[in-house]
Amino acid sequence: MDQRDRLKLYSVPLSSSLRSQGTTRRGHPAIVDGPSGDVITYGGLVERVPRMASWLVRHGIGYGDRVACLSLNSKAYIEFLYALAWIGAVAVPLNIRLNPREITHILLDSGAKGIFSCAFLVEVAEAVCRDIPAVEHKILAAEPREGWVAFDELIHEKNDSIPASDQVSGETLFMLLYTSGTTGRPKGCMLPQRVWTGYAVNMATCFQMGPGDVYLGFLPYFHVAGFGTAISQLILGGTLVTLAASDPLAMYDLIEAHRVTFLFLVPGLSSAFLYHEARKERDLSSLKVFIGGAGGEKRALVEDVEKILGARYYGIYGQTESGGKVTWADAGMIRENPMSYGHVMPFFDYRIVDEDDNEVEPGAVGELCLRGSPLMRGYWNRPEATAETLRNGWHHTGDLFLQMDNGQVRMVDRRKYLVKTGGENVYPQEVETVLLRHDAIADAAVIGVPDEKWGEAVKAFVVLKEGEALSRPEIDAWVREFIAGYKVPRFIEFIDVVPRNASGKILKEELKQRKTTADQRTRRR
What we know:
Rossmann fold, alpha/beta, 5-stranded mixed beta sheet, GMP Synthetase, Chain A, domain 3
């Protein structure tokens, strides 16, 4: 490849925007550690990251080496990720909710050479690394601990600064982000540095995020949208306020104290935040954007976000393989059609295709396929899965969509969750949406269960609002008002909470493990 071809293919690394902001916005706050209030400016960040990178290289961590991260959100976590990007190393963020066996699988599968942790999770990290000799380096974002290097060692002024590696570009692998594993063992999505630049451009284009904004980053960095939205704010020159977990009281305190403008909450957390009593005692006038789920929130919540908080509501759809957010819908689109997922974001090319990869007509259901800079390169150590997902030059999302008359798209359901009952196709998400319209229902999930007569039967899991009472026949009658009889749940189980992962997606494989009993029937045969 000659130099002209290399220039054509070049895309900018994460270090490019950091160096630029370190010059043009040197004194502007880059990251605020929420609990402590500790602030680092872009000038401070661009001074510390090269020192951290120098320490890593001196201790044998370099281009392409994988480093696991088992940590709560913090300022130090983001700084460490920037240092890995600076030298072309690969971060492997670990879901803090995984059990030790699952973490061990990811450490072995990724071939991690080191691990970064925090005081809260260090004992878990220590235990899983004990039997994995390949994890040579242990770095702790806290006080010194035997066998661990304290974070202060990495940022100490005695460390020489090194320039960003010329070997690193936007195509350099930066993150192995393992899928949630809702249908089996998680797969490592290979996300190069260009993914996050594309993510930031979409944030700026669709939501007008920019250098004057402040984003409250409490969604975990092991989640594609949690890290993606946080790093977007830094790429765009704004301020990131970190918070370790969802805590409505702490969130309202930080919004008021730091004049937060952007929030991103997933289904399951939105209501708890919005209706918390603490909001009545805080100045929330700085808020201007509230991002939630498309197709997964009650319309009343959308209205209340704009009425109570005075912020614009946007619903999104995304997935790890696609590098985060894929579609966006504003409140007006949702009011017009609560099922709308809005428009595909501008830095994606998309098609909706049938099982033979032929594009379907508008209004017909097919699989959403994507091309664009935010997409993954494939699955780590999974060439067959990569070839299947990225076949014919398109990323096949596994999600069934249709294009509406107004050009917007609507998700019908995950292909793998399609219920076939008596020869008819039932899309669980359609049934869930009808259930959620009922004023007494707080949350709902729908799956298919084995049925001797119909092959599969529709089963609903329903969470009632506190103080509400609702019988199975009443729910049956409600659903029949809106959809065909074959789509109506034959079984209903009342539960306390719908299990979800960090991105708010329903853990349907977990629900399928629950026993279906005769007393859960909505109607007698």
